[in-house]
Each structure stands twice: as C-alpha cells, then as structure tokens.
Specification:
This protein is an alpha/beta fold. The chain binds zinc ion (ZN).
Length: 291
C-alpha cells in the first residue's frame, strides 16, 4: 500500500491500480487522517478500531463511531470515493484544468449536475492549504472580468466582476505566490481587508495612487505608491506582476470556462487558478494536497 504524502502515482495506470476498489480509497484516507494509527476522537484511545463498510470505524474502548470521511469534502457523499478520486486525478492532471462537460465525458456521468458540483467542491478544498499570507514585496491591483467591454469609465463598472489581485515579487523580479478575491467595489472598505487578509504586516505593498489603498500605512504596511497617471510608464511597466497575473486569469477563464461564469461562482474559479498558479513550479502532483 502506498504511503500517503510520500508516494505519488506516476501515471493513470498506477493511479487506477492504487484505487481500484472502494475499500482501498477508504484505507488511503484513513492513513492521511491518522498518520500513526487511529485515535478515537471521543476518548483518545489509541488502538485498532472495529471496521465496517464505507469507512465506518468503532472505538474498542468506548464504542464511539466515526467515519473516515467526517470533516472532509467526501462527508455524506453518495458518490463512490473511486469516482471522487478519479475526478481529482482528472482535474489536477489537466494542464488547463477542466470544466463540468469535460469531467462528465471522462467519468461517464449521466447527470450533468454531479459533474457540475464536483469541481466546485474540489476547488473549495484546493484553497485550504493556501491560508498563509504573502510577504516581502507584494504588488496589489484590481482587474475586471466578464461583462461588456464597452461603456466602462474609469473604475466604475456595471456588469463586470471586480477581482483584487495580490502577487509576491522575488528578488530577481520573478513572480511568487498570488492571492485573488472578488470584491464588490474598489473602495477602501473592500481593498483594505483584502490586503490585511492576504499580506503579512510590515511587507512592502506596491499599489497605484488610488484612494482605496490610502489606509495601508496605518495598517502596518510599507506602502509604495506608483502614481501611474503622472508617470511616463504605462501600468504594465510599473506594476509588471499584477498585470501579468491579470492577463493569465483572463486567458484561463476564456480558455477553460469560455469566458462565461456567473459572479456567484467566480470565487471558486479564482481558487482553482490560485491553487494551480501557486504550484506551477512544483513537480509533485497536486492530488496529494487535496487529500
Ligand atoms: Zn473511544
């Protein structure tokens, strides 16, 4: 049996072999959950539990029952774990991610609804390992997605969704990790919490001269303001990081999701983008970060 977090299936055949039966999937989840053996969540007894089907475990000391899937995205699912695992494999190994239609085709779902809700649940799980805040030199800006291109004046938009972007720059000017969030407007009430949630205090935060960023100094950041309107360089020169990330997000939304999304689901897509972007240089497959 493979060791979770250490052994990674190298290809689809190996993956299919490891998770050929429902029981193997439960066994695998159990090993992720209790690395050095089952511990009863009720009485803390550390001993082999009684096992029944679908990952149900019973403590030998107090007879407390728990499931392997409690507290995971698989909790109370009616879909077999094998199907879930296949979906994760598919979603994380497609270079550009996948949409519901692709997943339905690959996994042979009869019901589009199942194929549609699955990637959303996965995206939510994907972002969990990403709670750590950015630090060092961080560029912050907003970008607009969807809606009509015409008739937009300045920052005041009608049907477009606004996305706040924060990206780390390393010493050589290369891009580090990103954080994205859909925001309702570009006021300080929206932008200040975004920066506080995503960036460590005492980091240098580089923004343009927009008043929505005016409270960053008092929140403990070193605020580096580039006033684009009064400088000769266009936005993509003075803020290369966020500019690049913004165009990658747009291209990805167009390519994978055909540019169509409803604003209430945009956060899920942003989570998936973040997850992929932040692991773009990692050789290990992302399957294990979700488990
Ligand atoms: Zn117990």
């Amino acid at each position: 049996m493979p060791e979770p977090g250490i052994d990674h299936p190298r290809n689809r055949n190996e993956f299919m072999d490891w998770f050929s039966e429902e029981e193997k999937c439960y066994e695998y989840l159990e090993k992720i959950r209790w690395k050095s053996g089952f511990i009863c969540p009720s009485c803390s007894a550390k001993q082999e539990p009684y096992r029944t089907t679908r990952g149900r475990l019973t403590c030998r000391s107090c007879l407390h029952q728990t499931t392997v899937t409690a507290g995971t995205i698989f909790h109370r699912t009616r879909t077999p774990l094998r199907t879930w695992f296949s979906a994760i494999w598919h979603v994380t190994n497609q270079k550009q991610g996948t949409n519901a239609l692709g997943l339905q085709r690959v996994l042979g779902f009869k019901c589009y609804q199942t194929a549609w809700t699955m990637p959303h649940k996965l995206r939510r799980a994907m972002v969990r390992p990403d709670r750590e805040r950015l630090s060092g030199l961080v560029e912050v800006d907003e970008s607009y997605l969807g809606g009509k291109e015409t008739g937009v004046v300045g920052r005041w938009v009608d049907k477009k969704s606004i996305v706040a972007i924060a990206v780390e720059l390393n010493e050589k000017g290369g891009l580090g990790r990103v954080r994205l969030r859909q925001i309702m407007d570009v006021s300080a009430d929206s932008l200040t919490p975004f920066v506080c949630d995503m960036v460590e205090p005492e980091s240098t935060v580089k923004t343009d001269g927009w008043s929505g960023y005016s409270k960053l100094s008092e929140k403990g950041y070193i605020h580096d303001i580039t006033v684009i309107s009064s400088s000769d360089s266009p936005a993509h020169v003075s803020m290369p990081g966020v500019h690049q990330v913004a165009s990658l997000v747009k291209r990805w939304m167009l390519g994978t999701h055909h540019g169509s999304f409803s604003p209430q689901h945009l956060d899920f897509y942003l989570d998936e983008f973040t997850f992929r972007f932040n692991r773009r240089t990692s050789k290990s497959r992302v399957f294990y970060s979700i488990g």
